[in-house]
Design a protein that fits this description.
Elements (H helix, E strand, L loop, with lengths): L9 E4 L5 H8 L2 H6 L9 H9 L5 E9 L2 E10 L7 E8 L8 H16 L4 E7 L3 H9 L3 E12 L2 E11 L1 H4 L6
Parallel strand pairs: 4-5
Antiparallel strand pairs: 1-2, 2-3, 3-4, 5-7, 6-7
Length: about 180
């Protein structure tokens, strides 16, 4: 399972030079089908502008690099205005490297940053209901489905549900229920 992880995979902060490889990832057919509610990006500049426009108080963006090629992306976007305790996750891995440990390494890095760097109590994401691989990964890291968004995204003439999933920090998860 972790063959890529044990064969030179590096996780590092995202740099501007990664954008061409990220454009290929974000425009990949599987990413567009299972992780994006929009069509392909026309250019690297359009993708960079879209990422820069994510509304957040703080951001932490990493990439997975193998043999000089950026093959994965993970962003943690810390909310503000009364939501400073929470962060939102965006993650993607090139199709040819999925189910080989890359997503797990990226997610582990984001959870570490959420806990150590930002002291977040809550990390959340939205996932399409038919993205079984992603849902399985998120559950493995303690994310739970909190809500279902019916007909969340349109695909041709049909609709796909989405799920909000969240992971609370261990301190919060073990807190007794005082109702």
């Amino acid at each position: 399972m972790d063959d890529v992880v044990n064969d030179g995979l590096r996780i590092r902060l995202r740099y501007g030079r990664d954008i061409a490889d990220l454009l290929a990832l974000f425009n990949e057919e599987r990413f567009l089908r299972y992780a994006s509610a929009r069509g392909p990006f026309a250019s690297a500049a359009e993708l960079e502008a879209w990422l820069s426009a994510v509304t957040c108080a703080k951001r932490y963006e990493t990439v997975a690099v193998l043999a000089g090629r950026t093959i994965g992306f993970a962003g943690l976007y810390v909310m503000g205005e009364g939501l400073e305790h929470a962060g939102w996750v965006l993650i993607g891995v090139r199709e040819e490297f999925q189910a080989r440990g890359v997503g797990a390494r990226l997610l582990k890095t984001l959870i570490g940053a959420a806990t150590v760097v930002f002291g977040l109590r809550r990390v959340q994401l939205t996932v399409f209901g038919d993205n079984a691989l992603a849902i399985k990964l998120y559950r493995r890291f303690g994310f739970e489905i909190e809500g279902r968004h019916r007909d969340f995204v349109r695909r041709g003439e049909s609709f796909v549900d989405g799920y909000t999933m969240a992971r609370l920090s261990d301190a919060v998860a073990q807190r007794p229920n005082v109702s």
